[in-house]
Design goal:
single chain; 4-stranded mixed sheet; 3 helices
Length: 178
Amino acid sequence: MHRHSRAACEHRRVMRSGFVLMMGLILALSACGFHLRGSRPMKLQATKIFVEVRGARQIAAEIKRQLEINEVPTVAQPNDAEAILSLTNERFDRRVLSVDPRTGKWREFELGYEVDLAISKPDGEDLVKRDTLQISRDHSFDETAVVSKFEEEQQLREEMMRDAAETILRRLETIEAH
């Protein structure tokens, strides 16, 4: 019985040491400015954003979600905004990168995502001129694992959408409201 309690004490000591080590790591990471993706607080000069959407529903939904998380209000009318974010022509594409020499079927492809954006004031003055944001990812394909590769492609698309939204929000952070 004495031996069993010694093991229990040793286990508690190891657990306590692990906890202290984990807390130290968390403190060190937060002290150096590390943030989990999407957890960085935004510092927008424009406090009221109108998101104008023409053919870019997916990115608009992600941007609105991230603005809400960061407690940045969106407004329903462009005249009530300090900045108008226009999103148009959202598109995904796929380009073959490699083909299996034996079967002639593609093995690897590049997923691409593009969206056109502009940021302006309600009076029409450009804050960020119309530009096309482009993001791409390489993706391998295995015909023996079609279902899992399809799910992986969907995850890549969602990741690209989040990355695009974060890039657009960083552009919003760089403008100055007047």
